[in-house]
Records
---
Amino acid sequence: MLEETLAKGLVGTLPRRMRAKLAEIAGDTVEIGSRQSLAQEGDAQTESILLLDGLMGRYMGPRERRQMVAIQVPGDFVDLHALPLDKLDHEVESLGPVRIARFPHDALRAAMAGDYPFAEALWKLTLIDAGLHRYWSYRLGRFRALAGMANFFAEMDHRLGRAGLRTEEGFALPLTHADLSDICGISQVHVSRVLKDLREAGLCALQGGRLTIHDRAGLYRMGEVSGAGLEELLD
Amino acid sequence: MLEETLAKGLVGTLPRRMRAKLAEIAGDTVEIGSRQSLAQEGDAQTESILLLDGLMGRYMGPRERRQMVAIQVPGDFVDLHALPLDKLDHEVESLGPVRIARFPHDALRAAMAGDYPFAEALWKLTLIDAGLHRYWSYRLGRFRALAGMANFFAEMDHRLGRAGLRTEEGFALPLTHADLSDICGISQVHVSRVLKDLREAGLCALQGGRLTIHDRAGLYRMGEVSGAGLEELLD
DNA sequence: CGGAGCGTTGAGCAACGTCAAAAGACGTGG
DNA sequence: CCACGTCTTTTGACGTTGCTCAACGCTCCG
């Protein structure tokens, strides 16, 4: 049943034999409640986590003015970078109830030591993550609130689509305005205004933990998603 | 003479035997003029570059509104992530005359295949880069122009210090207002105003390609550099 | 001496933050 | 079932930040 889940999302892009190898290494599968902190800044790590269900956020900065620096969707490793780094420089929190699988660093290292292509494949997963960080820097540095929010929704549309979690009409997105504030680097009040603009422009609406997309092309246009490099990175 | 340069900056944190290994792999050393583009988005890469002298910037977005997503100082690999990714999702440009050393991917792969600790060490270098991306996302998302600029100057102070390129009074920083605009995600005009504020606050001054620091503690305070994780990441 | 690039300054405006108030959503315990 | 507290969302008013446009000075170089 883990093999099944491994076929989806980013880990699903790995060759079959590597997914099998991962399935062997996998420790236990755990369910975790909403808004639980999995790691604090500075924590030493001895295992990494693969997200099977739900969303998780990674944060920097003081709680009252924190910035989300990455969001993970099912099929993503949440903190594989903690393996070479052996500590985390940011916090990790579940954005709702999640299901995860643990991968002990010992076992991963042992497998990689004798199989360079496997090591490079895992390395690549962490670099796709880094590519998303760059994409976020670009969004945070150069996008206005409205375009930035649309851009983020388009990113989610794309990434959740790859994980098989999207329909034509939209997808589950259990985020509060406070979450979107952390993601887009704007105030909660302004999040409310921007969502209203997107709604009234007939592009999309966020209600009941779900993003309903009314005009996907328009949303992507508003988010200035073009040759910006998201598809290239993830495909 | 390459061994000597390898002792400084980020690559200098590698164990001696790994630096020796790198020195063996190194291709030719090249000098490149100011404002030369080394790679375009989408380019396939067969070698990676170690920066020996000068500064380089990495950019996303259209030229007229581009965002710098990373800056490299001597001792940094500029595009080691292109090895597992085998293409670049952003542009790389020299910010002044630079000197670089080339490392063919073939040779790096061959060395890593038989030496897992070496592979993990290079992996770790790319993850420190990713950590800096996260730091930039935090700055771009949650810092005002003044604090953000101070934060960036503090980062340069710290990183150039590790590379041995800083004195008590300041360091060479051959950046134009347009560069700082790309770095901080603000307009060129506003860069001018912010620099004036920093100058008149007695913190630092940028003249003649050099940042003169008049009050380092005050600059760090203005940039809200504290337990934000930069030291932890780089040490 | 003329241009090109860079830096500075001011004026007006749009975007966004902060403060405050109030209404809705939701679960908990009585 | 209702009453209650808490969290979330919405809206208005007002102040601040930063952008755009425009003009002008500076420096460097041909």
Note: The domain at 2-137 of chain A is CATH 2.60.120.10 (Jelly Rolls).
---
Amino acid sequence: MTSLHQRIFEDIEQKIMSGTWPPGQRIPAEHELEVTYGCSRMTVSKALSALAARGMIVRRRRAGSFVASPQIDRTVMDISDIGTEAKVAGHAYSHRILSRRIERLSAVDAAVIEETAGAEVLRVECLHIVDGRPNALEKRMILLDAVPQARDETFETSPPGSWLLDQVPWSEAKHIIRAVAADAATAKLLTIERHAACLLLTRQTWQNGRTVTFVEITHPGDRYQFAGVFHPSK
Amino acid sequence: MTSLHQRIFEDIEQKIMSGTWPPGQRIPAEHELEVTYGCSRMTVSKALSALAARGMIVRRRRAGSFVASPQIDRTVMDISDIGTEAKVAGHAYSHRILSRRIERLSAVDAAVIEETAGAEVLRVECLHIVDGRPNALEKRMILLDAVPQARDETFETSPPGSWLLDQVPWSEAKHIIRAVAADAATAKLLTIERHAACLLLTRQTWQNGRTVTFVEITHPGDRYQFAGVFHPSK
DNA sequence: TAGTGGTCTAGACCACGGG
DNA sequence: CCGTGGTCTAGACCACTAT
């Protein structure tokens, strides 16, 4: 038996995650939810406080509660440029789409991401350039079942990562970070020496248990790092 | 004006962080705190629930609430062995202390960790061995002002990281992950080739704004990875 | 069995800030 | 101004579990 405040929490979480209540949407006031669920205000308040604590909603006196904007990537770690860590702002950023094609998921890839083979995926390769130097090579798969609107997107104006964050709320992400030696093709694209140490970030993102995207990002090891500040628990 | 449940939260947090209430210590029952603070049970409950949500205490019916054990490193990411990821248990672990000495913080090191030069630090180098292969080289500084009991510790029975977690609760940690090429000395200790790609994890830990320890851990890139599952916010 | 936390109620007063 | 969320009360019943 799940508690009532938990059920209210999950109901609202579901409406936000599914996009039924988009960012900025006003949530029913506490008093309205009291009536809807036939419970006291404390119970509603507990659920809404929990949602606010997780950053899913923003609560403002007199105005009401609103669905928060999609969270940016900093959840895990900030990605900072070793050479220019100081000047947080002022980066010249651009990107280049190297390739883009739609195919069906091979058995091998399906096993890796634990989805069913044959599903339609959009594969995109993208080079990220900061201050004139390539700083990341991105190889991405987007599951078209989960993100059908990606089918006709060229990613010319917005790179795949940012574009996806705007389109799809995510509920879970798994990250793996490894150190690898650059292969010939990667070395050439990143203008580094072959076998140079690189950071390889693999990220798989889900929405309600369904894979949205799977991406491998290779950074030159001498120019980039991952950094994050954490507090216990959470 | 800070709310009462917040004040209760902070009072207890302080007692835990300062070590006044060590791990395992029983916390006064809700009813006792009602009397102490002269408030209702709901107010106490709100504070204790928040502490439990942050993992600082564990609550058990009939038994009471207890200060949680210091959290293990998984806060950031699990460190898993690529080759033996499957067998979560069953690793043969051992460690070897390579060096141990007390010195005063040089100006350069002081600048790096943003502490005052001249402070006494214990420097320890430690090799971690899993299933017969070296898997990490740890170079650590422990601030003796913050952890005086480290002065006479040999770390023979427990490696510095685990020992510290048992001794000192931490309130903040900063991690940086880089990819680097192994230098000659590191390569020899880790039995890998020189210039092989390695993951370099740098971690600085604070307690109430004071640096407790600063550590650099080098992992062979082909054998290790960092992985973590995350949810939005946090 | 008895003490503890988990949940919930039906009120209340207040502070904030948008209209 | 006045609706909203923030906080708090003084109870209540129940589930769990150590003893």
Note: DSSP finds six helices and eleven strands in chain B.
